[in-house]
Amino acid sequence: MIRNLFILLTIIVSGLVNAQNNDEAIVVMELFTSQGCSSCPPADELLDAIKKSYEKDNVYVLSYHVDYWNRLGWKDPFSDVSFSDYQRDYAQQFNSRSIYTPQLVVNGSEHFTGSNSTKALAAIRNYSKSKRTNTIKFIKPKRENNKITLTYNVEGASFDQITIALVVSERITEIGRGENRNRTLKNTNIVANRLVKMDTTGSVMLSVPDWIDPNDELSIIAYTQNNKLVTMGASKISI
What we know:
Elements: H1 2-18, E1 27-33, H2 41-53, E2 59-65, H3 81-93, E3 103-106, E4 110-113, H4 117-127, E5 134-144, E6 147-156, E7 161-174, E8 184-197, E9 201-207, E10 218-225, E11 231-238
Parallel strand pairs: 1-2
Antiparallel strand pairs: 1-3, 3-4, 5-6, 6-9, 7-8, 7-10, 10-11
Helix pairs in contact: 1-2
């Protein structure tokens, strides 16, 4: 509890001092994490603190749960092999020989250990000075049973792909086995489903996984990337 409070206060103070009032800037922070990784909880806490401190700014955080830790005794309920593959795509772009958790990727341009608050805050300050080159607009999503439909339109510079992620605001999980056994973990902005499109405009349908509860707070976070996976624009809408 004391650690969580210290992280939150550090982020809030830094945000008050250093945040840029720049509506044209966007910061997309993608955390690759796992409930089966003992090094990941501090990164999950940091991501939650960033979300709370910068909720009124154009800072978008996403938590991608990878599947390669599942073999060690605890199957992360939010994990997906496609998220691990996405992380491997970044490894290729960064010329990395391996993938790791917790890894925080910022605007598709740099990566570092996800619990490093100093580097995370420096990245927010840095990318808050730049301008986005795309604007993403939505028509209000519609949810019917286990399906969500959404229409989007991208304006601005050409891009290679747009990621459309269904995000769950937060979850608390009691861990029964593995490296984090007997711990209670909080995960923030969990990616529940991810679609990648290449069209400037279009309609998509997202499946809602069975583990999502009716009372979960859901949103869509979309972001465009070039062929090097560098982020060009981002937007969010609640469901």
